[in-house]
Model the fold of this input.
Amino acid sequence: MSNYRQKTVVGLFILISVLGKAQNNDTIQAQETQKDSTVTAIIEKNTLSYKKLIIPTAFIGYGVASLSVRGLKQLNFSTRDEINEHKPDHIRLDNYTQFAPAALVYGLNAVGVEGKHNFRDRTIIYGTSMLITSAIVVPLKHIVKEERPDQSNNLSFPSGHTAIAFASAQFMFREYKDTNFLLGISGYSLAIFTGIYRMLNDKHWVGDVVGGAGFGILSTELAYWLYPKINNLITGKNKNSSAMIMPYYQNKTIGIGFVKNF
Done:
């Protein structure tokens, strides 16, 4: 091979190497840009805007007002009197329908109707929602000490069953609202059923149910807002660390346990 041809081959090799490196750099930059865009989109979707708080704040405000405002307290009594006139059967379906929307999310995903998050992520979100709901509802019941309509105890406000039901319904809505809006809002029918039957079973006043609905929706919105932070805490920066989330049932209490090894 002549000296001229050798120089030409070497030149072409250098040119191809430079172009390949430039293309690779462009690809990496594009991937980083796409990754940054995805992260930004996730952050924006999980931002707790005031618009998401309007409905739960209104419900909670009504519930709190019903404890002292004369007109709303009268509505509590008149609604109960109207219910008692019809003497409805006291059934306990509300003990199960409070969890039904969340169960549907897992069931639908199992048969291929995928929601926004995978099993791990949605379990973290729903578990966080339930923890927030319990952290709000249980102390409030003992602080307010409102007597139940059936006079069984003084733990009426807010309705825990209704709070869980609407937290579950809001969870279903957030998982499916972007892909199947009608399916997403269907969970609210089960939540409303739960709230109505808490009144039909003479366990709660109207204000308890409305307030519970507000606390439930708020809990799920807070769970979605906290999820990126919780996920970062779970994954961490240590590659040797591991984490596990699992449900538990003990002494008639349902909960979610979290274990992390560093």
